[in-house]
């Protein structure tokens, strides 16, 4: 079983990871997000361009090239999951070879030159028409520099099966016990987790969302200045509202699916018994042997009702309440968190 703790960025999916970590037989894999299948140029994009081509052969080799380049960039991330670069890249290359139907060298869409000398040399070769003259004389297509080889694949047979074997091979090389449940952070898209299921054996997604008021203030006071990348717009509350709504309105994660469970972070904290029972039923788990040993709702209360601690955002909170009423969590019957309780990101302080 592959369990994905999914969210929308800062929405509290780690609460699920922490709860499941309290089971001795469940494996929590990696200390970072396993974002690979659903990222731009990942397997979802590759599948789309190979199965639904719009630009003759261009869709095919461009999508394959982008997937290879994306995997090279992700190789260092994979090391955090216990798989070395060579094993990961070998699996990637073997998968691409298994779906490649033809390959040849072409000057179309040449990659940028890396040096001035190379740029000049390439320009002289191409402008002189030497290659075209050679091809006309020999009747053979040129396959040497500066041409580059491209891979072609349109509607490859068994793509889903080959891609799933590729993904599961990589997971197996992480040294996990494939007979025990495995938990990853963000292996599936929070917006559309079911689109990724075909690439995993026995997948289940738990999607956690958070009150937009808490998310906005959390971003303003806690995330700002911590990361060079910005996962959401925070300078303008109107942009934040558009961002929040855009990721949720009419998105596939809301559709009823036997392998997708949607939870609210507020329920994990203030309705702990009822909500954790839903998780156990969803994953067919026995009673938790160590409840609250890692995920302690009393600690996580500090991450809620943040406008009580930061009244300077009163104007923004009112705008969010006006524009996103259906996404607000009902705190009316919930106790107020302590004003000096520690706000934290990601995993519990007990993890």
Overview of the structural elements:
With 351 residues, the chain is of the alpha/beta class. The protein has three domains: 1-28 and 180-351, Rossmann fold, CATH 3.40.50; 30-104 and 157-175; 105-152, no CATH class. It is built from 13 helices and seven strands. The strands form two sheets. It has a five-stranded parallel β-sheet. Helix 2 (43-51) runs antiparallel to helix 3 (58-79). The radius of gyration is 25 Å and the shape is elongated. It starts with a strand and ends in a 28-residue tail after the last helix.
What overall form do the CA principal axes indicate? elongated
Q: What value does the Rg take, in angstroms?
A: 25 Å
Number of strands: 7
CATH class of the largest domain reads Alpha Beta
What's the architecture of the largest domain in CATH terms? 3-Layer(aba) Sandwich
Number of helices: 13
The averaged pLDDT comes out at 92
Strand content: 5-15%
Which regions have little confidence, pLDDT < 50, spanning 5+ residues? none
Major β-sheet profile: 5 strands, parallel
Sheet/helix structural class: alpha/beta
Taken in chain order, the helices and strands follow as EHEHHHEHHEHEEHHEHHHH
How far apart are the termini?
22 Å
User: How are the strands ordered across the major sheet?
Assistant: 2-5-1-6-7
Approximately how much helix is present in the residues?
40-55%
CATH names the topology of the largest domain as: Rossmann fold
Count of all domains:
3
């Amino acid at each position: 079983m592959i369990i994905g703790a999914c969210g929308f960025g800062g929405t509290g999916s780690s609460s699920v990871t922490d709860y499941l970590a309290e089971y001795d037989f469940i494996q929590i894999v990696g200390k970072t997000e396993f974002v690979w299948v659903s990222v731009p140029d990942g397997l979802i994009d590759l599948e789309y361009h190979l199965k639904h081509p719009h630009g003759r052969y261009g869709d095919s080799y461009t999508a394959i090239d982008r997937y290879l380049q994306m995997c090279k960039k992700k190789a260092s991330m994979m090391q955090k999951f216990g798989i070395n670069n060579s094993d990961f890249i070998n699996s990637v290359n073997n998968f691409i070879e298994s779906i490649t139907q033809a390959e040849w060298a072409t000057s179309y869409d040449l990659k940028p030159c890396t040096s001035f000398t190379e740029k000049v040399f390439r320009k002289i070769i191409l402008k002189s028409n030497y290659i075209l003259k050679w091809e006309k004389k020999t009747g053979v297509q040129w396959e040497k520099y500066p041409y580059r080889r491209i891979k072609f694949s349109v509607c490859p047979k068994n793509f889903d099966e080959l891609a799933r074997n590729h993904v599961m091979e990589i997971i197996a090389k992480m040294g996990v016990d494939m007979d025990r449940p495995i938990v990853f952070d963000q292996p599936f898209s929070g917006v559309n987790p079911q689109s990724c299921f075909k690439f995993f054996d026995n997948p289940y997604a738990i999607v956690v969302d958070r009150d937009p008021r808490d998310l906005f203030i959390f971003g303003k006071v806690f995330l700002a200045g911590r990361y060079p990348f910005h996962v959401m717009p925070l300078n303008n509350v109107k942009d934040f509202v558009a961002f929040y709504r855009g990721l949720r309105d009419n998105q596939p994660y809301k559709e009823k699916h036997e392998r997708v469970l949607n939870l609210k972070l507020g329920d994990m904290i203030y309705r702990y018994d009822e909500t954790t029972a839903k998780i156990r039923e969803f994953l067919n788990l026995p009673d938790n042997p160590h409840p609250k040993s890692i995920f302690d709702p009393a600690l996580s209360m500090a991450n809620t009702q943040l406008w009580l601690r930061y009244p300077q955002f009163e104007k923004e909170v009112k705008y969010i309440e006006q524009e996103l009423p259906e996404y607000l969590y009902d705190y009316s019957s919930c106790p107020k968190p302590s004003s000096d309780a520690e706000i934290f990101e990601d995993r519990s302080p007990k993890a």
